Every structure is written in structure tokens, then in C-alpha cells.
Amino acid sequence: MTFEELAAWLKDMGQPAFRAGQIYQWLHEKQVSSFREMTNLPAGFRRQLEELCELVVLRQEDRKISAVDGTRKYLFGLVDGNVIESVLMKYRHGNSVCISSQAGCRMGCRFCASTIDGLARNLRASEMLEQVYRIQKDLGERVSNVVIMGSGEPLDNYDNTLRFIRMITDERGLNISQRNITVSTCGLVPEIKRLAEEGLQITLALSLHAPDDRTRQELMPIAKKYSLNEVLDACHTYFEKTGRRMTYEYSLVKGVNDNQEEAKALVRLLKDRGGHVNLIPVNPIKERDFVQSSSKTVTAFKNYLEKNGINVTIRREMGRDIHGACGQLRRSYLRKMEEKER
Ligand code: SAH
Q1: Which residues are paired to 85 by β-bridges?
Q2: Three-state DSSP class for 249?
Q3: CA of 87 relative to ligand 1 center, distance in Å
Q4: How far is the CA of 193 from the centre of ligand 1 (A)?
Q5: Nearest 5°: CA angle at 152, between 221 and 203?
Q6: Less CB within 10 Å around the terminal CB: N or C of the chain?
Q7: pLDDT for 24-76, tens place per residue?
């Protein structure tokens, strides 16, 4: 429940007005995992809450810490037996958590491990909040950035994602700045336009991955539904309405989208748009035979964009020793479970 929903519900229960603030603080600032811990509530009322309410708590199934860079990868169990993964990355500018928005995914991007088993279900806002809360507790340090770039397509779970964003940025909760939240989408055009109207200051990242429709369609089935023109127009609308500059993600796959022709086409496509390109050497998954571009190719690609006035960075690879890429840990867990059953 949002603060307003909680306040209305407590009022109906005949509770005093200050109760909402107390409970909201326990849940979203102190991040307790049971009603019993809410020690400033009357004992009888705590018992009543236990009977009436369900507190969503994630169970930590696994945690891997990278020996290379301290990246932490978590596998969390949901009440219905589904599992999801989340990642903590430590940067100089703060702690960033990458959360999942769905268990599985139905977008079908060819290089992505999250989508191989399809969509299990949407995550609730509480399950998204809990990923951040459990990680902050485990780390013992404040989380300052959230990227919705884990498994799932956030705009395919629009309402819960928006509820999550409003709650994680609520000053009565974790109070993360909207500017420190990034939503990454494969490019759902109607939802991008809808997001532009929400009055938010979050960053929108588009998974572009190719400078022409044909190549993009090979990598991402969604590109058959929305052309590059349509999706880039929607991104432009987002920029115009919010003043927030777009981020374009471009995973470099050897021999597929990484030659100089493609760099040229990308410059033509993005030249006057004022966004930022994030180059990501594709993370190979064993189910597909996509190969990472060589570091020489990646650098050449970057230099070409830069020389032609495109704002570009190469994303530093983190946590590779612990299955850092989208959906790999969850997938290896599911495989293990299947084998056990057999
Ligand atoms: N569904 C959203 C967010 C999740 S994926 C989206 O498509 O943007 C987050 C980013 O990681 C996307 O840009 C996605 O294309 C990219 N990605 C997924 N698997 C990858 C892999 N194996 N190597 C490199 N990037 C990958």
C-alpha cells in the first residue's frame, strides 16, 4: 500500500491518524520483516495486523560475491516458489541495485537468458521494493541508485513498476531521488508515451542494440511490432515531456552489429537527439552462440561514435565471475531443480 492507501485503511480500522506514519516507517525506512518488530504499536494491534495482513518478505536462496569487484548477486525466493535475481554494484558514486520486474520475461530477445523459459509472472510492487530492502540490510549501507534492468520487461508490468517507483522515491520511505532511478525497456511504444506523462524525473534507457530494423528484428522480436522510427519518436516524446536525456543501450555482438557500417548508421540515427549511448560487450550465454566483440572492435566503435559527436561510454563489466548477466543465476538454479526432480 502507498502511504495514502495505508492511512485510509487504518482510518477505517478506527486507528489514530499517526498510526500510518509509524507503520510506514517500520516497513519502508527501518525495513522490518515482521509485525512483531513494530515495537511502538500496541501488542493487540500487532496481533491483529498479523492476522489480517500479509507482509511480503523475500527469502534469500543464494548470494554470490564477486572476488573481482565486490558485485553481489542475489537469488530470492517468492512465496509461490518462483525465484528472481537482483544485483548490487558498488560504484564510486554510490551503491546501485539492479532489480527484476518480472519472474522470467516474454520479450524473447535472442541474447538474453531471462527470457528462455518465458514469463512466469509479474512482480508486485512489494516484491520489487523488497529486493532493494533486503540488499540494503544485507550490505549495511545505503542504496542510492536503482536500475530496473534485471529480468523482465518493466513496461510490460507497467502499473506495478510505477507503484514501485513512487514508493521507493517517497520521502517517507527510502527516499531515493527520482534522478537516481533508471527504467530500461526493449521499446514498448505506447507505454513509453504513457510514462512520459507521469510527471517523473527518472532516466529512461532504450535497449537499441542495432541501427536498422532488419538487424534489430534478428536480435529482438519486439522490433517486428514497433519500427525504429516509432520507438525513437516515442523516446523523443519522453525527452520533450520530461527534459530527461535518453540512454541508449547497445550490446555489441561479434559480426552481428559491431562493424563500422553499423557505427555509421548509428551516428546517423542518433546524431541530433542528444542522448547517451552505453556500449555493452554482449555477455555470452551458453544457450546461444553469440560472441562478444573483441575489445579492439569495441574501442573502434566507441571512437567512431565519439568523433561524430555522440556521447558514449563503454559499460564496465562487473561480476562476471558470479553469473552477473541477466537471468543466468536464476536459469542455472531452475536447471538444478529440474535435474533434482528427474
Ligand atoms: N527488458 C528490459 C530490461 C532488462 S534487460 C530491456 O530490454 O531493456 C537489461 C539490458 O541488458 C537490456 O539492454 C538487455 O538487452 C541487456 N542484455 C540482456 N542480456 C544480455 C547479454 N547476455 N549481454 C549483454 N546485454 C544483455
Answers
A1: 75
A2: strand
A3: 14
A4: 21
A5: 95
A6: C
A7: 999 999 999 999 999 999 999 999 999 999 999 999 999 999 998 899 999 99
Grid cell of 245 as nine digits: 536525456
Q: What is the DSSP letter of 286?
A: T
Under 8 Å between Cβ of 178 and 200 = yes
Q: Looking at ligand 1, which atom is closest to the CA of residue 186?
A: 7
Cβ 325 under 6 angstroms from ligand 1: yes
**Residue 122 in this model has a pLDDT that exceeds 80:** yes
Ligand 1 centroid–CA 149 distance in Å is: 7
Q: Check: CB of residue 214 under 8 Å from CB of residue 265.
A: no
CA Rg value for the chain: 21
Q: SS3 for 72?
A: strand
The CA distance from 235 to 229, in Å, is 10
User: Residue 167 is inside which H or E element, if any?
Assistant: helix 158-168
> What gap in Å lies between CA 69 and CA 124, rounded to an integer?
31
| Residue tagged active-site, from 85, 127, 153, 191 | 85
The answer to whether 32 and 26 have CB atoms below 8 angstroms apart is yes
Report which DSSP code applies to 255: T
Under a CB-based contact definition with an 8 Å cutoff, are residues 277 and 310 in contact?
yes
Return the bridge partners of 77, or none: 59, 83
**pLDDT tens figures, 169-215:** 999 999 999 999 999 999 999 999 999 999 999 999 999 999 999 99
CA dist 190 and 303 (Å) reads: 34
What is the torsional sign of CA 151, 153, 156, 160?
positive
Is the overall model pTM greater than 0.85, yes or no?
yes
Number of H helices, E strands in the chain: 11, 12
Domains, the chain, in order of start with CATH, read 1-55 (1.10.150.530), 57-341 (3.20.20.70)
